[in-house]
Design brief:
This protein has nine helices and 14 strands. By secondary structure, the chain is an alpha/beta fold. The protein has one domain: Alpha-Beta Barrel (TIM Barrel). Helix 1 (27-40) links the parallel strand 1 (6-9) and strand 2 (44-47). It is globular and about 45 Å long. It starts with 5 loop residues before the first strand and ends with a helix.
């Protein structure tokens, strides 16, 4: 079984310090959280950025400032900027970090009801636009899917040339409006992707570690972090992103999976640096 790639989603766009004081806003806080995850075993940092006041932004200059600082603190790490941004942002606003030519970036494959009146909109034309941009810039897309229909969309657009092989999926499970985080649904998604595709599982909230264990056993990969879950165990706040990564490393050891370095992760995902 190949080595386990751990992605750390260190901040997200919605979670706040009121939820967990370790959520980063400033450059220094982002470096602290990225380094804690990297030192614990994460080879990929999934990155949203904020203003110093905590407001989500897709400003490419803010991304560059924080990415450069993380690269300096975490030599060799893969940084995966989010092109999801926040609800209400335009396509071009969301795509700003791709102008920095990162090795990877997320590509959301469908529209989702996030709750209340919040709609995370990703039309077919939006997905095509994002996919074409990533092909042009040589960026490996992580195909974020919140339901089975989004896998179907990705496969359809792959056939039309907007997404290249081998595909890498991120099953985001347990989000309001998306598929649940039950093992039944993990098996459903896992059986719906091509044989040559790779996948990561991001379990939200209480699903984080049960789904991490399932992915480890199955040979997949794992995403954890304060974006998805602010607790290390029921009712106990995580002290850092690194503490969440450490728990996955312990799980992997129990099931006999070694942890991939960033360079090994590149080889597994077909990223050429």
């Amino acid at each position: 079984m190949e080595k386990l790639i751990i992605t750390a989603a260190i901040s997200g766009a919605e979670v706040l310090k009121e939820h967990n004081p370790a959520v980063p806003y400033t450059k220094e806080e982002f470096v602290r959280e990225a380094k804690s995850a990297f030192d614990a075993g994460a080879s990929i940092i999934h990155l949203h950025v904020r203003t110093d006041e905590g407001k989500p932004t897709q400003d490419k200059n803010r991304f560059k400032e924080i990415m450069d600082a993380i690269y300096a603190a975490c030599p060799g790490v893969i940084i995966q900027p989010s092109t999801g941004g926040a609800v209400g942002m335009s396509n071009d606003e969301r795509l700003q970090p791709t102008e920095l030519n990162p090795e990877m970036a997320t590509l959301d494959c469908g529209t989702l009801n996030f709750g209340g009146d919040d709609i995370f909109e990703n039309t077919e034309n939006t997905i095509k636009y994002f996919g074409k941009r990533m092909i042009e810039r040589g960026i490996k897309p992580e195909l974020e899917v919140f339901d089975k229909s989004m896998i179907d969309m990705a496969l359809r657009l792959h056939k039309k040339g907007y997404i290249e092989s081998p595909m890498h999926f991120d099953f985001v499970m347990g989000v309001n409006g998306g598929i649940s985080g039950e093992l039944r649904d993990f098996v459903f998604l896992r059986g719906s992707i091509p044989q040559d595709a790779t996948y990561t599982v991001a379990g939200v909230g209480r699903y984080e570690f049960t789904l991490a264990a399932a992915a480890i056993i199955d040979g997949g990969h794992v995403r954890v972090g304060l974006e998805d879950n602010v607790y290390i165990s029921k009712g106990v706040l995580a002290k850092s992103n690194g503490e969440l990564v450490e728990k996955v490393v312990r799980l992997a050891a129990e099931f006999g999976r070694e942890i991939a370095t960033p360079q090994e992760a590149r080889a597994i995902l077909g990223i050429v640096k």
